[in-house]
Design a protein that fits this description.
The complex is a heterodimer of chains A (320) and B (369). With 320 residues, chain A is of the alpha/beta class. Chain A has 13 helices and 14 strands. Classes of the chains: A alpha/beta (320), B mainly alpha (369).
């Protein structure tokens, strides 16, 4: 009994998934579960294996070994069932540029086998959702990127999937379009759709219920953003701003044994402080003829966590 | 249902692609006209020069024999051997006739005479044809002058030649059917393979593969518009051939349609196979030209007769669908025959179509890696 209710809470289940391309391991024995109704973020640098994982789950490429279950259906056996209940939005815009938004949506309605009444109402819904009602007869190639992304989202939601896979949906989109796109994702999640999204934008990862950090095909950490920040960062984050930030950064790097790891966030320096009194930092920098504009503890961001998680891992990789 | 959606979408894409429409409508006609008028193996008015050193009644008789035939056109009477060489080198003439000074005397003395014929062999085909005409003209002349004395009679042996199916030996009757085969290969193999590989290149295939559409629904929907286009082109070219080139259509149009569909299955098989092994459009087009167009032109008997090819190449031609289709087309157009005679070709076309389509389906997986 209990088992059953447990499994129905799981939308996506991945066990020991491995994918190799000609000897190169893109996904290396990863296992995780995605809960029903959550926004699940897949976070990692380019080439980490995020897209590969999503493409395996959507049946676009074959798995090398391991298993994946989507709503209890095996990706090895039940592709047909899976494809009816999942929506997929690929990283590269992949609707037809030579068709109008309306024709694109009509095509996907047909491909997903919607009857003509459902199709008509869903197309109308998608056009409104993507704010394209007035441009539904323009050629898709003439639309701005933000509109294209929303149209692609609309197409992937046309058949009302219960699980939505989004592969870097906001790549190359301006910040305000990104924000409005995430509002749409939230709305989907609120209506009960499980959202599996890959991104390399840290601020986007903050929107997720849970985040999986992935690097070089390996799953490093999986938790909610809050827990990650609390549990994975024992140190305080000190933000330092200096007029010669490059010089300051280099100076601090030399003293990382006593002060802690430093990383650059634009022109600001983040220090994972391991010392006792951050007044020491200021006097050290002043002693190096660096003018310090500000030095203060800041709440950790996901990026701090990400840097902290990747560094030790990278070091062991390099030494092994 | 899903098939219809795929087909409709492809049709919209084709209708919006003006270049493609031009290819579909004008290219077949252009090909027909270029080949129909340009590629002709009939030669008339072969340019020739004469160096007549005999300058006698008899030598002028000989020259008149050439001049009177429509196959030769004497462009120059020269006064030196070197001038003949010059004309040959510059490709101004194909045949040079040199008549020696003693020609008339030798003939009158019944010793028999000799003339020199220089042939420009740089275009072997034309040279061959010109030599044939020359032999005919020359035989005419000698027949006139070397009649045996009336007292001696030989039993006469005569060959009564009649050319069937193409009595005027018009090249266009022979070539136009070949063009139909080439156009269908082009539309069937190149356009379909390009259309599928284009989706790989632009990434639209990702979204298709993630959808519940089945491979066969996708492929069938995708190629249906091209089948319609190909059949439209067949009608276009056959009509043009009939009205512009007076190519006779002696057989049944219905059977022509049947064989055209069979041949189209071959072209689509090749096209799908190419699309399954190509990653980008340029690669697919090169591959499609290599696998479909070139064999259809070179190994089908369109230009070079299969019977004169080396044995190994002859064996290869069994895999060239155009070979059978060409026999079918010439049979239906010129001989007025049908399936009752052409069934072996029909069987071979079926076998080849199955071979290509199964090769394509083995290679064509719906997943992308």
């Amino acid at each position: 009994m209990r088992n059953k209710s447990d499994s129905s809470d799981i939308a996506v289940s991945v066990r020991n998934m491995t994918k190799k391309f000609d000897g190169f391991t893109a996904v290396d024995n990863i296992s995780f579960d995605v809960r029903r109704g959550e926004i699940f973020g897949f976070l990692g640098p380019n080439g980490a294996g995020k897209s590969t994982t999503i493409r395996i789950l959507c049946g676009i490429i074959d798995i090398t070994s391991g298993e994946g279950l989507i709503d209890g259906h095996s990706i090895l056996k039940d592709q047909d069932k899976i494809k009816r209940i999942t929506g997929y939005m690929s990283q590269k815009f992949s609707l037809y540029e030579d068709l109008t938004p309306y024709e694109n949506l009509e095509f996907y309605g047909g491909v997903y086998g919607l009857d003509s009444r459902t199709r008509r109402s869903r197309i109308e819904w998608a056009l409104n959702m993507s704010d394209l009602a007035e441009r539904s007869d323009d050629l898709t190639s003439d639309l701005p990127v933000g509109y294209k992304q929303r149209l692609a989202l609309g197409a992937s939601l046309l058949h009302e999937p219960s699980i939505l896979f989004l592969d870097e949906p906001t790549a190359g989109v301006d910040p305000s379009s990104r924000r409005s796109f995430w509002d749409l994702i939230y709305r989907q999640a609120q209506s009960g759709v499980t959202v599996f999204v890959t991104t390399h934008y840290m601020d986007e990862a903050e929107h997720c219920d849970r985040i999986a950090f992935i690097d070089s095909g390996k799953l490093i950490r999986l938790d909610s953003p809050g827990t990650l920040k609390r549990a994975d960062l024992r140190e305080d984050i000190i933000e330092i701003m200096a007029d010669d930030w490059m010089k300051a950064f280099n100076a601090l790097r030399e003293k990382k044994e006593s002060f802690g790891e430093v990383s650059l966030f634009g022109t600001r320096i983040h220090l994972r402080f391991t010392g006792d009194d951050f007044g020491d930092i200021e006097s050290y920098l002043i002693g190096n003829n660096i003018h310090v504009e500000s030095i203060r503890p800041v709440p950790p961001s996901l990026e701090d966590v990400f840097v902290a998680l990747l560094n030790p891992y990278k070091n062991t990789e390099a030494s092994s | 249902m899903r098939y219809l959606a795929v087909m409709k979408r492809e049709a919209i894409t084709i209708a919006r692609d003006i270049r493609l429409l031009l290819i579909v409508v004008f290219f077949p006609l252009l090909l027909l006209i270029i080949y129909g008028y340009g590629v002709t193996f009939d030669i008339k008015g072969v340019p020739m020069a004469v160096y007549d050193q005999s300058n006698s009644l008899i030598s002028r008789e000989l020259i008149d024999c050439y001049d009177a035939s429509e196959y030769f056109k004497i462009t120059e009477f020269t006064h030196s051997r070197t001038r003949i060489d010059e004309l040959l080198i510059n490709d101004d003439i194909i045949i040079g006739l040199v008549i020696p000074p003693d020609f008339a005397r030798d003939i009158k003395s019944l010793k028999g005479g000799a003339v020199q014929v220089l042939v420009n062999g740089s275009d072997a085909n034309t040279a061959n044809v010109a030599l044939g005409y020359h032999a005919a003209v020359f035989a005419d002349f000698t027949g006139k002058y070397f009649k045996p004395p009336e007292s001696i009679t030989f039993p006469e042996v005569q060959a009564n030649t009649r050319i069937w199916f193409n009595p005027d030996l018009k090249s266009s009757n022979f070539i136009v059917p070949g063009i139909i085969a080439i156009i269908m290969m082009l539309m069937g193999a190149i356009l379909t393979s390009t259309a599928i590989v284009k989706e790989k290149e632009s990434g639209t295939i990702e979204q298709i593969v993630a959808s519940p559409v089945k491979s066969w629904e996708y492929i069938a929907g995708k190629i249906t518009p091209y089948i319609i286009i190909s059949l439209f082109d067949v009608i276009l070219v056959v009509t043009a051939a009939y009205f512009i080139f007076d190519v006779p259509i002696r057989g049944s149009l219905l059977q022509l349609g049947f064989f055209a569909l069979l041949f189209l299955a071959n072209a689509l098989g090749v096209g799908l196979f190419v699309s399954s092994i190509s990653k980008n459009v340029v690669g697919a087009q090169i591959m499609a030209v290599l696998l479909s167009l070139l064999p259809s032109i070179l190994l089908s008997g369109f230009v070079f007769p299969i019977s004169s090819m080396p044995r190994v190449i002859q064996a290869v031609t069994y895999l060239v669908p155009a070979r059978y289709f060409l026999e079918v087309l010439r049979g239906i157009f010129l001989k007025g025959i049908g399936v009752s005679v052409l069934w072996p070709q029909a069987l071979f076309l079926c076998a080849n179509a199955m071979l290509f389509l199964s090769l394509a389906s083995v290679k064509f997986k719906k997943t992308l890696d």
